[in-house]
Amino acid sequence: ARIVNGEAAGYNTWSWAVSLEVGDYLCGGTIIDESYIVTAAHCLDHNLRPSDIKVHAGSLKVMEGTQRSVSQFYMHPSYNKAEHTNDIALIKLDRPLDLSNRDLAKICLPKIASTSEEYPVASTPLLTVGWGTLSSGGDISRTLQQVTVRAVGAETTYCQYVIKNPMLQLCAGIMPAGGKDTCQGDSGGPLMMFNSKQEWELVGVVSYG
User: Fold this and answer.
1) pTM, full prediction
2) List of domains in the chain
């Protein structure tokens, strides 16, 4: 996925965002504590060994900053490649990150275990970041980009077309205008919401679109 029609991220704004060097691929990820990164399962679905993955944290520049190797990774056991469901994975770092470093931080996780209603609710402003290409088939961005979108209800025609299971997948974009999105290279990056506690909360992982 790519950030299209976004803008450059500010210094120390998204200190939990990391770039992942996955063999010959670029993906994003999110720091959830000093030893673990959340990313998309499809980023790691290439017969990889942990040694094939490098994590770069604490920099706006792609593949720069604090580097860590990976001791293990865990793809969701129910990940469905064809339907893109449960497209989530955990990466365990070989050494903990120093979160007292002002260039590094962890994102908050949702406090709800389950809900019968859509979360976040439709039209909620959301934000995503990444180093993916700035146009389809173009070059990756050397500097972290950000774009604001909105949660889109699963019952809308657009979302019914692109998601298979609304209990497992979240639809986001700018409807009906479009024009702002993610694409190649942004996969695995965070989809974030600024919650009522004035904290940035991880509500999704960039998967496809």
Assistant:
1) 0.90
2) 7-12+108-206 (2.40.10.10), 17-93 (2.40.10.10)
